[in-house]
Amino acid sequence: SESSDSFEEEETLANKLSDDDVGAILVCIDAVNKLKRLKLAGCINITGRCLKPLCRSVVLEQLDLSLVKRRQCPYYHSASETRITETVVLPILRSIVTSPGNSLS
To answer: Are 8 and 75 within 8 A, CB to CB?
Structure first.
């Protein structure tokens, strides 16, 4: 069906996105000042380095780094299947949360 084809294409794209891809997009759109929601669910090839352009954002309201997407059966991802790294992501999130006037909930 058309909707399942769309879902498969979406899943394939998410699996191919890299930190460089996402980071470049965030810089191009001035995400630190404009982006309210970022959903990277299923992007298993990112480490989180791509989030650096969001440091100290006060407009970001929602960030989704789920390993699986909606309608996808959650299953265990081994360390070799995922690249997201706490030591990379947490300092970026801390810079957002501790910014005066932040919108992240």
So the answer is: no
Structure tokens at 6: 């769309």
Q: What is the pLDDT of residues 52-73, one digit of tens each?
A: 999 999 999 999 988 765 555 5
- Angle in degrees, CA 19, 20, 26, rounded to 5: 85
Q: Quick one: pLDDT at residue 98?
A: 94
Alpha helices in 1-105 (DSSP H): 2-16, 19-28, 31-34, 86-97
Give the C-alpha distances (Å, rounded to integers) separating 61 from 31, 68, 89.
12, 20, 16
For residue 60, the tally of other CB atoms under 10 A from its CB is 25
Q: Kindly report the average pLDDT of the chain as a whole number.
A: 82
Element (H, E) at 38: strand 37-39
